[in-house]
């Protein structure tokens, strides 16, 4: 018999909000301060998803796989501080809420399902972005990339929220746009839904085999908790709403 989830956890960047325009401005300002050429929005769109420190390292190396010299040392420290300063000004200025997000959040709120943001974005920027886009009111819990020692794809941030509610992992959902979200959800023993848009480093999110896959959040029917196929049958593509 179908039932409502005990908890819905959502990724932020690439799932609720397209924040790349803000991040690209900050990255390019950081690079300019180091007399380096701008990266541009297209590259930043591929680089995001693993937290601010990795984004800075990728920008310094101009690649997805930075070397150790790009992740530590004086240059990295200077770059990271420059990025934080620039992003504090651009955060929320150009970001857009994805279509269908507010409709879904309103529905789940009316159904009295607890909602949480679980993101790898630093907490300071997470709270500021949610506030600027007027999304804060929907969420009972917010976990940032620096809230715990671990971040996604480690399951610790998800399990932290689940424990706060004394919920059952298998009755909880994680919704995201990247393989980090899928891996974290699997490790936490949660149900996993993924959106086809967002940031997944150019990879098809279907390859990570979430339980459900949709083009918009308001297409998700999460009353399917008890009715999902057994593991190994692959993701179910919910029908388009248009």
List keywords for this structure.
242 residues, alpha/beta, Rossmann fold, DNA polymerase, domain 1, 2 domains, 7-stranded parallel sheet, two-stranded antiparallel ribbon, 9 strands
Summarize the structure.
The chain is of the alpha/beta class.
Account of the protein in words:
With 242 residues, the protein is α/β, with parallel strands linked by helices. The chain folds into two domains: 7-18 and 95-237, Rossmann fold; 20-90, DNA polymerase, domain 1, CATH 1.10.150. It contains eight helices and nine strands. It has helices at residues 20-33, 41-47, 52-61, 74-90, 101-110, 123-132, 156-165, 179-188, and strands spanning 7-10, 17-18, 96-97, 115-118, 141-143, 172-176, 191-195, 212-214, 236-237. Strands 5-4-1-6-7-8-9 form a seven-stranded parallel sheet, with helices on both faces. The protein has a two-stranded antiparallel ribbon with strand order 2-3. The longest helix is centred in the middle third of the chain and has 17 residues, at 74-90. The model has no long low-confidence stretch (mean pLDDT 92).
């Amino acid at each position: 018999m179908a039932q409502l989830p005990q908890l819905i956890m959502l990724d932020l960047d690439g799932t609720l909000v397209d924040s790349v325009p803000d991040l690209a401005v900050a990255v390019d300002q950081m690079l300019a301060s180091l007399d380096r050429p701008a990266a541009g929005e297209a590259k930043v769109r591929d680089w995001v998803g693993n937290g601010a420190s990795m984004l800075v390292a990728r920008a310094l190396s101009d690649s997805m796989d930075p070397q150790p010299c790009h992740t530590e040392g004086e240059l990295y420290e200077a770059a990271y501080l420059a990025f934080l300063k620039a992003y504090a000004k651009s955060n929320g200025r150009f970001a857009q809420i994805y279509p269908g997000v507010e409709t879904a959040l309103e529905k789940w709120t009316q159904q009295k399902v607890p909602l949480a943001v679980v993101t790898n974005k630093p907490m300071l920027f997470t709270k500021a972005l949610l506030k600027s886009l007027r999304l804060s009111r929907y969420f009972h819990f917010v976990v940032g990339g620096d809230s715990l020692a671990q971040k996604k794809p480690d399951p610790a941030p998800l399990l932290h929220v689940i424990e706060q509610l004394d919920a059952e992992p298998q009755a909880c959902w994680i919704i995201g746009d990247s393989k980090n979200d899928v891996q974290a959800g699997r490790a936490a023993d949660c149900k996993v839904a993924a959106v086809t848009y967002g940031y997944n480093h150019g990879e098809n999110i279907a390859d990570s085999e979430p339980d459900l896959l949709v083009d918009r959040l308001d297409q998700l029917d999460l009353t399917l908790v008890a009715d999902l196929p057994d593991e190994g049958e692959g993701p179910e593509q919910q029908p388009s709403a248009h």
